[in-house]
Amino acid sequence: MAVNLKRNSGEDSDGGKTSRRRMLGWLTGAGLFGSAGLSAVSNFVFIRPRATYGQPQRFSVGKPEDYPSGTRAILAARGICIVRDGARLAAISITCTHLGCTVGAADTGFACPCHGSRFDQDGNVTGGPAPRPLPWFQITLAPNGEIEVDKDIEVTPGSYLTL
Amino acid sequence: MSPATPPKSSFLAALMGLPRNVWHSIFRNPLPSNDLERSSTSFTNFFLHIHPVKVHKNSLRPTYTFGLGLISFFLFVILIVTGILLMFYYVPSTTQAYDRMLDLRGSVAFGTLLRNMHRWSAHGMVAMVFLHLCRVFLTGSYKKPREFNWVVGVILFLLTLFMSFTGYLLPWDQLAFWAITVGTAIAGYAPIVGKDIQFLLMGGTSVGQEALLRFYVLHVAVLPAILTLMIAIHFWRIRKDGGLSRPEDADPKITLEPMESAGAPKASVLEPKKVYGFQGLVRGPLTKVGQVPDNTVFSWPNLFLAELFTFVVTLSAILILSLLFNAPLEEPVNALHPPNPAKAPWYFLGLQEMVSYSAFWGGIGVPTIFVLLLLGAPYLDRGPKGVGKWFSRDRLLANTIFITFVVANIIFVIIGTFFRGANWAFVSPW
Hints:
The complex is a heterodimer. By secondary structure, chain A is an alpha+beta fold.
């Protein structure tokens, strides 16, 4: 109350004591709230994992001979479908672009059991809420003759690996 | 100074009086038989002083509140007790969680009953909190001075949903896994921060051990703590806002003029210290004691008996439900094959139905708009009329908008529950 009265009675009538006190008040407040804010941020840094324990994104799926022409093999554990068409190979994601459910094979391509998205053989959306076609992943032939899929690298749908 | 050894007779008397004295040191009031004792019973007891000594008759009308808020709170209490007991046997590990569920069913005494009670109370709490929200809206109780308590209430509703959502993953069955896969993916659609929230929630790029541990910590520590604090604020503000809302004509008008024959009202009448009235009506302009007809009754026994009755009914209902119906437990998690159709719990099915049209609008856009409208309601609808009455004519517009939203959501829930089959295709339940 007393401080208020002084403030009202004019600026620095007490020789700058009020403004010094206000300044110190501001600094104290800034220090306290700044520390609280930094602590909050560091908490978020803490709960954001640096290393995750998931599967590797780049893996081998066997030899081309395992997939005769015309095969559409769903490797559910890897989240991909290996498509072999003559001498051409491709890896299509089977993780629904809508909300991450695993799509299953259907007569016309793929269908999602969660919210009814449907895709054709190449992963293009033919119905349902899915916003994007199923991505295709980079597929290469490793020196040891095995097929290697890298889920970190998406390729344009329709780009096959020709053996 | 007292003598080193008191006379035998007085020591014996103290010994004889020991039980009685201990009892009276704990319970300082006899069972009340007059108004003074009734007042001091609820005033001096830690647990009872949550209520004012006297409450307005309107607050006790069962058809005004239907006890919905109280039932929600009692369900929360049941959830805490059963939840702590379940924690003794639960392990948040992808390899053990499901087996622990089976153990609860097979080898833990009362395990099935406790899990059932926890599950049905959780469903009940979501329903009751929502109905309570409807009651408060339809009686116009969010209006001044209760605007912020309404905001706290909306936050409590969201926390209840989040509580239920995090608990959903813990059994680690098929339903759990896919509901959380979908739920976290919805969070991923939020603009800018979506992917980060999704990553933080799951502790990785897919639902696995890290996600289970995170949801467990949120479910048993973080959210209950926040919820408890918010409930305390919610209750505190009810008192500070003058008790439950009631129609304007429930309180007689206080006029200043005829107070005393001698001239203008004294300044002392308006002093703030007078505001702390006998009834705990902090907001009232004047103390009302002795000036107006009293529309209040003593909390003891009227309010406390009504609350005890509500508690007994709530607990009995949960017990009966838990004895009759077992909480579902699906197959253990198979990350490769989602069940078809993969359905969320009933109260999220409206959301899931909307999400099946558009992930962003159904999962983020529309719910955000709805929540913002709810939060903003008391600040947008400033008309003072229609408080304390169900479906007041003065609130026709606000109530109509609200009921439209509620009915739309109920329709979505019904479609999602009964009309959706494999691949979320439209099926007829008949």
